[in-house]
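To: structure subgroup
Subject: Chain for Friday's discussion

All,

I'm putting the inputs and outputs inline so they're searchable in the archive.
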Amino acid sequence: MRRCPWGCVIAAVPLVVLSFLLQENEEEHLTENPSLEEKKKTLWRLNQEQLGSESRDHLAAFRDMREAAPVLQEATYRLLAGSPPQGRRLLAAGIASEWGPRGTYLLDTLRSLFQASSEAELDHVLVLVHLSGGDPAWLGQTAANISGLFGRHIEAGRLLVIGGGLAGAPGPGHPGSPSRGSACGARRAGRRASYALLMNFARNLSEYFLVMGDRVRCSPEFISSVSRVLWAWRALPWAVLEFSGLRLSGKVVRAGDLGRLASLLLFPADLPIPSLLSEFRLLLAQDAPIRFNPAVFHGLGRGPAAGDPCAAPEEEEEEEASGEPDNPAATVLSDMMAAGSAPPQVAYVLNKECYSALSPVRGNYLAVAWDRPQRVARVAVLTGSEPHGLHLLRQGRVELGLGPPVAGHCGRHSLLGPLVAGRLDQAVFSEAPLSCLRLLVLAPQEPWLLVRQIRVWTRPEEADAEPAASGEDAGPTPTRSAARQ
């Protein structure tokens, strides 16, 4: 089914408005006659059912769409340095960089990326750079600088630099097109178009696509960190995985979704890219962000340069759970066979004791039931011995629960995430207080399992979420519900 994604979204909006108008209009007439109250309820139910059906149809159309928008299918590209690789890589790291009065950190970003990665890691990655701007001299000089500094990576097929343009008459989202709003709105439109062109080009080059800005510092071995997570999440439902608190950089999507995402970036509205990425996640039914700790991408530079009020620096969200865990009071239960005298509670106590179990089987658990509901900000689960990582849980997952716990379990559990190399460390996005945490064994293993520590960070009860700013340099947008998979 080939439909423009923003057409699907826009089509759903009038249905919502119409539904409320119908409700309001009918209430004016029906509430005056109590004998018609049942008719009013019936009409409202029919309106809701029709709205739900239409909305599901539009969401299904968006999810089923694989082709990019026609304007992207007719896009033109130039190879500025390097050539497309033979075969698909595991990961394409995409960077869009544009000329601007503030200059660019692009070379520093590329230097950090290659210095943080081993040769073996780089063999699975393509670094794809899209250059755009109205200054041909800048494009040529920047491409020459990249070729001079990173020539061996270009020759090895690890680095490719391109330029691109959208076909047809200039319109919303075309680089350099007139803006109905401010000059900064035109810059944002050009930036969205640059990333749309980048993603459209990358659709068949890799299995996954990593979104990066041109002002980023990479942590050592970040490729291995990302690859391990992708392997653990490969069979689970998700739309966007986040590897930093930056608004733009560090987000990974499946390459099969790039056509839809690139089309969404050309949505005719003055929105920054991070806002559209959040909408993309919601359109694909991922209610809350999935974010891993520690962050492997960090921003370079602080604040926009003088004389460039439209700059969008990669400011990092201030972590609310960056200190020590506080592990609120809880009851800890397990149905695994203990290998010693230590009770399961020791895994929840913040010391060096471990809980050891013999030959766990699929379905075994270790459950934490808090004495009262908690506003959880972050959870870490560590298994295996230090420093060698022996007896870790090879296949397991962590779930969070709502509702009053009964015998250590909640009535409703939702996935937080699978363990990656025997551990999990993730941010939690939930407006509702949580009551339970459960470590679940997914496959039998021999002979031992060591649960080294469960760490929980909570938010103060009186803390209210701050409204997110609308620019790309603001912190992440608060989410509406707990993570569900």
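Points worth raising on Friday:
Confidence is low (pLDDT under 50) at residues 1-37, 39-52, 463-485.
The two ends are 25 Å apart (CA to CA).

D.
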